[in-house]
Design a protein that fits this description.
By secondary structure, the chain is an alpha/beta fold.
């Protein structure tokens, strides 16, 4: 396996990876009147209209509040400029919307590093762990799976990387681990920065 420092395409999850997670999913489910374990996007997608539209608007409002409050994850303000300086391609694959991703990136002063077309939001591709969004980034960059890495804090990110045949990096911010899906595990983006 090529080392991380040789990777040319870096695809990041957004919430909880580049930003410190301020999303309170339990609170979101309560506001949206969902069961505590509901998959929020799937639940809304299964609703008939006009409830689906109503819930989508409510979700958008909640997410805008969280996006404006986004804080930079440890090490992100060093890692991203460093990768850009090395000529790496930078992308985001998020279950959030592209618009909210851009609000979050503005909030942490990193918007300049991520071209709009390389931010894949939930309306731009099937949701993770479907790898189509990741594959489309690689195609746009004309990079092979071997040249790329998928970085995230959750199982879906790692499953997405696996499905695309891309090296997976777990930024482990809590006790959960998915060793069968993980090629590299770091406790923060600072530790990745030190490997470059
Ligand atoms: Mg995340």
């Amino acid at each position: 396996m090529a080392q991380l420092k040789d990777k040319k395409g870096w695809v990041f999850d957004l919430d909880g990876t580049l930003t410190i997670a301020v999303h309170d999913f339990a609170q979101m489910r309560r506001t949206l009147e969902m069961a505590p374990d509901a998959d929020i996007l799937a639940t809304i997608a299964a609703l008939p209209q006009p409830e689906r539209m109503r819930q989508t608007l409510k979700l958008d409002q909640l997410e805008e509040q969280y996006a404006q409050q986004a804080r930079a994850a440890t090490g992100v303000l060093e890692l991203i400029p460093r990768l850009a300086q090395q000529g790496c391609r930078l992308g985001i694959f998020t279950r959030n919307t592209k618009a909210m991703a851009q609000v979050s990136l503005e909030a942490i002063n990193l918007a300049q590093y991520f071209a709009t077309e390389f931010i894949i939001g939930r309306d731009d591709a099937p949701h993770k762990p479907n790898p189509q969004g990741l594959n489309s980034l690689l195609e746009g960059w004309q990079l092979t799976a071997e040249q790329a890495v998928m970085v995230g804090d959750f199982k879906y990110d790692l499953e997405t990387g696996r499905a695309a045949g891309v090296t997976t990096v777990h930024v482990a911010t809590d006790q959960r681990r998915w060793p069968e899906l993980t090629d590299y595990c770091f406790s923060s983006l600072s530790d990745i920065h030190q490997k470059l």
